[in-house]
């Protein structure tokens, strides 16, 4: 009679144990991979979140700095504008004071107790450019010889210059562009500014201006000014004394 051995049962159990060990090892491997790559992924997400937060913070700081720069620029521009306006006002005030001092000196020379007595004269002449070839003249006439007396008369101008390389003198009629242009009347006790307009022909280069006064009584009076004096480019107006 033949007997079958029971060693086959352990042999059948041994492959099952090996499979379990392999599965367990595989599971540990998966766990290790998850720990490695899962942790790295989580860290990467945290790093990205931190970077985004830092970027947002820097963006907010940058916008704040931009606003501060814009505010400082506006403040600087306002300060510059205010300083420029102040400088302009000071310059205008200085010019006004200089004009007032000149007026006081003029009046003191003209009517002061120690002023020199002078008859009718042309104290100053000013020529100012207008449109085209037109010029506006302002002539200051004075007299303090006969205090209280009124001076009456007429004023005309003549201008000497060159045109086309030749000397030429423009009469009052030429300057006014009228054949029988009337003179400008004056009437004053101590001083008066007589004004009017003249026109210079094209190509004419003025050199000298002569003011001619014809009083109602007495001889005519002529005073000449260089063009530089008359346009303010030369000497100051002549003193009345």
Automatic annotation (TrEMBL):
<feature type="coiled-coil region">
    <location>
        <begin position="48"/>
        <end position="103"/>
    </location>
</feature>
<keyword id="KW-0812">Transmembrane</keyword>
<keyword id="KW-1133">Transmembrane helix</keyword>
<dbReference type="InterPro" id="IPR046703">
    <property type="entry name" value="DUF6776"/>
</dbReference>
<keyword id="KW-0175">Coiled coil</keyword>
<dbReference type="Pfam" id="PF20567">
    <property type="entry name" value="DUF6776"/>
</dbReference>
<keyword id="KW-0472">Membrane</keyword>
<protein>
    <submittedName>
        <fullName>Uncharacterized protein</fullName>
    </submittedName>
</protein>
<feature type="transmembrane region" description="Helical">
    <location>
        <begin position="16"/>
        <end position="34"/>
    </location>
</feature>
């Amino acid at each position: 009679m033949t007997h079958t051995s029971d060693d086959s049962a352990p042999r059948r159990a041994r492959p099952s144990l090996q499979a379990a060990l392999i599965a367990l090892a595989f599971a540990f491997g998966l766990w290790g991979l998850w720990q490695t790559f899962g942790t790295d992924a989580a860290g990467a997400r945290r790093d990205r979140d931190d970077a985004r937060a830092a970027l947002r913070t820097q963006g907010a700081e940058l916008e704040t700095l931009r606003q501060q720069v814009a505010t400082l620029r506006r403040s600087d521009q306002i300060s510059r504008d205010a300083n420029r306006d102040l400088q302009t006002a000071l310059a205008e005030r200085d010019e006004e004071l200089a004009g007032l001092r000149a007026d006081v000196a003029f009046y003191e020379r003209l009517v002061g107790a120690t002023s020199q007595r002078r008859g009718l004269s042309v104290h100053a002449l000013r020529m100012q450019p207008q449109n085209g070839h037109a010029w506006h003249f302002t002539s200051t006439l004075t007299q303090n010889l006969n205090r209280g007396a009124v001076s009456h008369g007429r004023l005309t101008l003549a201008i000497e210059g060159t045109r086309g390389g030749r000397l030429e003198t423009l009469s009052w009629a030429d300057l006014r562009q009228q054949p029988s242009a009337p003179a400008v009347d004056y009437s004053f006790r101590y001083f008066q500014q007589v004004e009017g307009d003249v026109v210079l022909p094209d190509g004419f280069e003025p050199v000298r201006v002569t003011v001619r006064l014809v009083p109602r009584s007495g001889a005519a009076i002529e005073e000449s000014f260089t063009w530089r004096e008359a346009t303010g480019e030369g000497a100051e107006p002549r003193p009345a004394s």
